[in-house]
Amino acid sequence: MNTTSDTNTPVRNLNPITAATMLALASFSVTPAMAEEAQANTESKIEAITVTATKRSQVIYEVPIAMSAFSGDDLESQGISSITDVGKFVPNLNITGFSAGHNSSANPFIRGIGLQDHLITTDPGVSVYVDGVYLGRQVGQNWNLANIERIEVLRGPQGTLYGRNSIGGAINIITKQPDQDALVKVSGEVGTRGRLKGSIFTNQAIGDDLAFNFNLGFNRRGGLGEFTNLPNAEYDVGENQDFHGRLSVKYNASDDLRLVFTADANDGEGGTRPFTTLIDEMPNGRLYQNGLRNSDVAADPYDNATGTIETATVSNKANGLSLTADYDINAELGAKLIFSQRSSEYKAGLDDDGTATALDHYPERGEADQTSIELQFTGYLGDVDFVTGLYWFNEEGSNRQSDTEASFNSGPTKLELDQETTSQAVFINLGYDLTDDLRLSGGVRYTQDEKSASTNVFDPVGTIYSSHDWNEFSWELAANYTFENGLNWYGTVQTGYQSGQYPARPYFLIGQFFGLGGFDNPEAGALVRANNAFMASDNIDAINYETGLKGQLTNDFSMSLALFNTEYDHLPYQVNLVTEAGFDTNNLIVEQTSRGVEFESTYFVTDNFTLHSSFGFMDVDVKEQNGIKPVAPLTPEWTASLSPSYEFELSNNALITTRFDVSYRDSMYGEPSSDPRRMTQIDERTTVNFDIMYAPANANWDLSLYGRNIFDERYDDARLNTGDYILVIKSNDASEFGVRFRATY
Fold first, then answer.
1. DSSP conformational letter for 49
2. Whole-number Å distance between alpha carbons of 607 and 40
3. Which among 203, 163, 251, 222 has a CA at the least distance from the CA of 72?
4. For labelling, which of 344, 375, 428, 430 has a CA lying 20 to 30 Å from the CA of 302?
5. pLDDT tens digit string along 282-335?
6. Cβ-count burial 280-316 (b if 16+ within 10 Å, e if not)
7. Is the domain of 155 the same as that of 41?
8. Residues 73 and 155 in one domain
9. Which of the listed residues 480, 513, 535 is the one where a domain comes to its end?
10. What does the pLDDT look like over 90-116, one tens digit per residue?
11. Hey, what's the torsion of the CAs at 193, 144, 314, 233, to 10 degrees?
12. pTM, to two decimals
């Protein structure tokens, strides 16, 4: 850690963009020369990944946006088993798991855009897709990555092809489709911290036109702490287990028509993720004034001193059905239909005071049901290729905190949120090869969103209803040029859009009730409704200017380099400050600019030695408003990873493959305030994994020794200063060592 800081010291004295560019270009200029010197033959050692980021198949180097891609083999070799793990190896990507203490949640932040809250009235700024199906809710998004063909991480606004809620970027998960190969794979993992993991995958053909694949898995890991006042708690703190399965059936109905039906399900539960509460640091807060102290919280931050059984156990269930139909209309025109239905439900919550006293605890339940339909047409009109289509999405969901279970300051509190969202869009993207080397592309998307929401946080106020609609045009222009050496240059201007949102926790309605006279004014509730206090925000707009280089420079070296500047308008921030009067909450609508550099490379140093690296720098500037200068939360300035691997052959022709992965995330803030008195800065962290695999010659199995976070780097996922206490959400990441077995039949 100190070495990293010392190395970066002179760099930090430069302009940030200049410094980052110099580092990236230094790698670019030196490494190809080394690769050319080490080149042993003319055959390329690098396999370029084919991606579908533009909803058409392209080699990753040809896509005019910044993106990272992991093949299924990459995921296995790096020990990546969840979306959270992906966040360790992509520049300017940080993924947390904050949501209500739930282990199944994934909260991605790309280039300073993400979402901390998970309630039904909030939408993430980074969209997650599985086989073209948008996952609307964060709880349950920490997708199990078994049976995965590849993962694509698209950075920057993706408003044209992916629509709303992708102003920061998009994550595509593509599963393996059934084919004609007969295959059975089994894997198992046993490790420390109670790790027990097993899965089976099979692909089988039933005749020439019908095939299926199926995977079933179980994953369990023990906890990191104990519920000190709940000896009969079902799970330890941070313990989790889940069952997951997926069935895909592919039917070639004719030479022109292909149908894929998929069903998946996940069922997980465990103990709430680790968190602790700092009370003494807030002597003016309610907890301190109620006589609670840090000594009342568990001494070990990974233990939990709650006396509330309702918040000790979390659970989630998710299932989905999808049908994809591909139809070749003729030699130059094709159509695709993607239909999906998904449902999810969860039980979670936090005992925020972290003590046996039932002061602030919020057991919570939520559910969501969504249906989506997308119709695409792809093809050629002369020299112009195109992707166009229609999209429809509907979601109904709710969140509940019962006043018979939840409490605030030892008194009952409630939260009832319901929302229905309907989104419709039409889009088109065109591409034209101006020359053999120069390609121009662009597109436009029109989106119309409508939300109907209701809330009840206080019975005297009653249930308040509201509805609103938004519409927006998103567009994109891009050019990419291929040099003689295979290097691709691209320049892109793209916009993004996110519809407005209703307040996630509208307890301000209680204040308005009493501000209008409360119980002394029988018309107070009516006045609150009349004033329409439960209002939706304006939509968020984004525009991104980006240029980059990517490609395979030699048979041994490939790289990508991106420079970007993204401007956001109407971005809502709740900024809390410490003042002489105590505590001040400010709801701001701000302008934000994110700018930075991203670099990735793969270098075959020798035939046996491979080095993968990633590097990201980002400067996020949020415009000052009303004398307040916010910061982007959960957004590290520097990100980096280094993954060397070495393969050697034993005398019996068996192969040993060793791999190390080092991931670094800079310090960041847990909320949109950098006020040091709020004590919400999250320390930098470096995690290290290793994997040593033994594969006998001419065998169908391999055996690995693995270590994850081998130095047991403990770090915070989030820090929130409520004014009454500091809530510290701890990562569920911890050192783990074990053995993995895989066999293919």
1. P
2. 8
3. 203
4. 344
5. 998 999 999 999 999 999 999 999 999 999 999 989 999 999 999 999 999 999
6. eebeebbbbebebebebbbeebbbbbbbbebbbbbbb
7. yes
8. yes
9. 535
10. 999 998 876 666 666 778 899 999 887
11. -30
12. 0.90
